[in-house]
Amino acid sequence: MFSNGQLIFGILFALVFAVFIFLAYKKDLNLHRKYYKGSVWVLIAFISFLLMIATIKYIFV
């Protein structure tokens, strides 16, 4: 389906992209801690809401 060159390029691209994203996140970590201090609670509430909707769907179907 893919040639060897395409597979190698895809794998290398994914690895370099992941490293770049990791380094950018590491560089901005202090800013994230300062400005997004309570955002984990918003994430927990959102996931809980989605789980509640899925539970209601499976109960009433």
The geometry reads as flat
Number of strands: 0
Instruction: Estimate what percentage of residues fall within beta strands.
Output: under 5%
Low-confidence stretches: none
**H-E order:** HHH
Taking Cα atoms only, what radius of gyration do you get, to the nearest Å? 20 Å
Structural class of the helix and strand makeup? Answer: mainly alpha
* Sheet with the most strands, sense and barrel status: none
Q: What is the terminal-to-terminal distance? A: 41 Å
Number of helices: 3
Q: Provide the helix percentage.
A: over 70%
Tell me, rounded to a whole number, the average pLDDT: 94
How would you sum up this structure in a few lines?
This protein has 61 residues and is mostly helical. It has 3 helices and no strands.
Give the helices and strands, then pairings.
Layout: H1 4-27, H2 29-35, H3 39-60
Q: How would you characterize this protein structure?
A:
The chain is mostly helical and 61 residues long. The chain has three helices and no strands. It has helices spanning 4-27, 29-35, 39-60. The chain is flat. The model has no long low-confidence stretch (mean pLDDT 94).
Task: Sum up the structure in keywords.
single chain, 61 residues, mainly alpha, 3 helices, 87% helix, flat
